[in-house]
Specification:
Rossmann fold; about 240 residues; about 50% helix; single chain; about 10% strand; 6 strands; Four Helix Bundle (Hemerythrin (Met), subunit A); Haloacid dehalogenase; alpha/beta
Length: about 240
């Protein structure tokens, strides 16, 4: 019996690229007013280069988009001419501005109605994300029972640990859980290797790139409730005692 559904967030329930654009624009508006030395030296176009430099210098934080962004801002502030304490303080303030923008998401069509249907089925619902969105801050707190991300876990999907933590939290076995996500490797391969059923969210009608095939594929979020019914019928053949 299927008792829990876990969801990836970015590019599964909303598009992430427009969100990051909004967040970066909000960030640089704030920097223009509060850290002019930074904007004299760096633009939004410089952020990918700064990110790559941070990752090359601090590979141990590669799993954490929060730590990467914070370190990027701190390094940029120092290079722009701020002292260590001021650079750290400005980076923390700037990050909070960015994070606020990062939660200004626009849900995909049918996302909310789909979650409502699943909630009415009395399923546990969890979020498993490599990003740093908080389901409560985006307005989904009433739909989700738990959340794990790469920051709290210490590993990104497809590493099995996030899936294992979700199973432990829900008190369930892998065959009782379905994971829903857009990424063939992080979501589908990762969940498959952890023993979960999988639903691939393929909103752009892409060809399957290879690897363990998803249990079900949907091309619109309102197809998920029926996909879960079909998985439940398939799961009924498994021993769950």
């Amino acid at each position: 019996m299927i008792k829990c559904v876990t969801f990836d967030l970015d590019d599964t329930l909303w598009a992430i690229d427009p969100v990051i654009e909004i967040a970066n624009n909000s960030l640089f508006d704030w920097l223009q007013r509060n850290a002019q030395l930074f904007v004299r030296q760096f633009s939004i176009a410089d952020l990918p280069r700064l990110r790559d430099e941070v990752l090359a210098r601090y590979p141990e934080i590669s799993h954490s988009v929060t730590q990467i962004r914070l370190r990027l801002l701190q390094e940029g502030m120092r290079r722009a001419g701020y002292g260590p304490e001021q650079a750290e303080a400005l980076a923390l303030q700037a990050f909070e501005v960015y994070l606020e923008g990062r939660h200004q998401v626009e849900f995909y069509e049918h996302a909310l109605t789909m979650l409502k249907v699943l909630r009415e089925r009395n399923l546990q619902i969890g979020a498993l994300s490599n990003g740093n969105a908080d389901v409560k801050r985006v307005g989904l707190g009433d739909y989700f029972d738990f959340q794990f991300n790469a920051e709290s876990t210490g590993h990104e999907k497809p590493h099995p640990l996030m899936f294992q933590q979700a199973l432990a939290h829900a008190g369930l076995r892998p065959e009782q859980v379905v994971h829903v996500g857009d990424n063939p490797v992080a979501d589908i391969e990762g969940a498959h290797n952890a023993g979960l059923w999988t639903i691939w969210v393929n909103l752009n009608d892409q060809a399957w790139p290879g690897g363990p095939a998803p249990t079900q594929t949907v091309r619109a979020l309102n197809e998920i409730p029926q996909a879960l019914i079909e998985i439940a019928e398939q799961a009924a053949g498994r021993v769950t005692l």
